[in-house]
Amino acid sequence: MIELYQHQKDVLTLLEPYNKCAMYLEAGTGKTFTSIAKALTYDAPILVVCPKAVIPQWIRAFKDMGEEAKDWTKPKQFGTGDVAVITYGLAWRRDIKLKDFTLILDESHNICNPTSKQTKGVMKLKYKNLILLSGTPNGGRYDKLYTQMKMLGYKPTKRQFEDRYCNMFDMETGGVKFRVLSKTNPYKNVDELKCILTDELHCVFMKTNDVISLPEQHFINIDIPVSTDYKKFLKDEYIDLGDREYIADSPTNKLLYSRYLCGFENKNKLDVLTTLIEGIGDRLIIFYNFENERSVLTNLCKKLKRRVFVCNGSVKQVDDFKRNEESILLVQYQAGATGLNLQFCNKVVYFSPTLSSTLYEQSKARTWRTGQKNKCTYWLLTCGVEYDIMKSLNQKNDFTLKLFKG
């Protein structure tokens, strides 16, 4: 049975009277075990909705707390047991007949979009008790909090919420009217909003540094020269690389291929990565985005005679990585930026940046968390359009096509 830290016990004491609450605790503070301890006080069936990558972690955590959790992504286990774990994608697709149960939403920022089927499906579940979990509940944007507030009991409409807390203005394009959030001064009445979150909706906010003493973090920015292929592509919006060609026939493809040419298609960046790997005689984590990027990185690591393991949507080789010193773990943002416990490693390379502010912030906490005893070093390899992406991420904003075109 896990013994909780004092700051976890303090959270439970604070939230004891409430059947709906949010634990917005930064990575490394132990929100998984805290939420399980809270859920067990309700004496009701428990359903955890979470990203696919962390299902094994939740099952292990329940086991450590003396409970058996069923994996409801597996058809043979679906509908069985008093404790179950399922993904966001399946939570609304499968016919979940539970009533009056305790719902835990891990990484609750996944329901920020009120119009998505995923959000609507989760909000229709017939739960009695609710625990929201996230280290980055809004990705730096207060307008992203509305759906989570609604689940916690917030009554005003989305329009009333925006009128009160967001500086919006009307625009019209092609005869279509829509509302836009001000870039220069997006929010207002923020102190009032924070009081509502903590006092009325029972949200607890906790930063890692406030409760846990962790080693220093060191970020090293390495500027990478762009390639002639990248320059040519931006100029002509087309490039032929022999067995493949990139055509900027849409803003989406232009951004995608620009990222390719800044990343795995850029020999300059691969040369710098080669030098880093040769100079780091220790375990190393490399964050990447694309499947073709993973293939190039895998071949490079093997060429340098380093054992390489992968964490993506279909493969999770974290245990193998942990058992092998001087090995390399390639982590795809979407699959491994959240949920993984990698505090046994303290060296990370960002080969290419994600477009998601939430994934970027979460990725840094895979190593810098409870149990880390050494200084964490992060190398950020950046060139071309990636400078604009990183500027946006450092401001805790997602990078969008609108910013790319701008």
Question: How does this model look, in words?
Answer:
This protein has 18 helices and 17 strands. The chain has 406 residues and is of the alpha/beta class. The protein has a 7-stranded parallel β-sheet. The mean pLDDT is 92.
Question: What keywords describe this structure?
Answer:
alpha/beta; 7-stranded parallel β-sheet; 37% helix
Provide a short characterization of the protein structure.
The protein has 406 residues and is an alpha/beta fold. Strand 14, helix 14 and strand 15 form a beta-alpha-beta unit. The mean pLDDT is 92.
Main sheet?
7 strands, parallel
Q: What's the N-to-C terminus distance?
A: 54 Å
Tell me the radius of gyration: 22 Å
The strands making up the biggest β-sheet line up spatially as 3-4-2-5-6-1-9
Shape, per Cα inertia axes? globular
Strand content: 15-25%
Total beta-strand segments: 17
Seen as an oligomer or otherwise, the chain set is: single chain
Blueprint of the fold:
Blueprint: H1 6-15, E1 20-25, H2 31-40, E2 46-50, H3 55-64, E3 70-71, E4 83-87, H4 88-91, E5 101-106, H5 117-123, E6 127-133, H6 146-151, H7 158-165, E7 168-173, E8 176-181, H8 190-200, E9 203-206, H9 208-211, E10 217-223, H10 228-236, E11 238-240, E12 245-247, H11 251-262, H12 267-279, E13 284-288, H13 291-303, E14 308-311, H14 318-323, E15 328-332, H15 333-336, E16 347-350, H16 357-364, E17 376-382, H17 386-394, H18 401-405
Helix pairs in contact: 1-2, 10-11
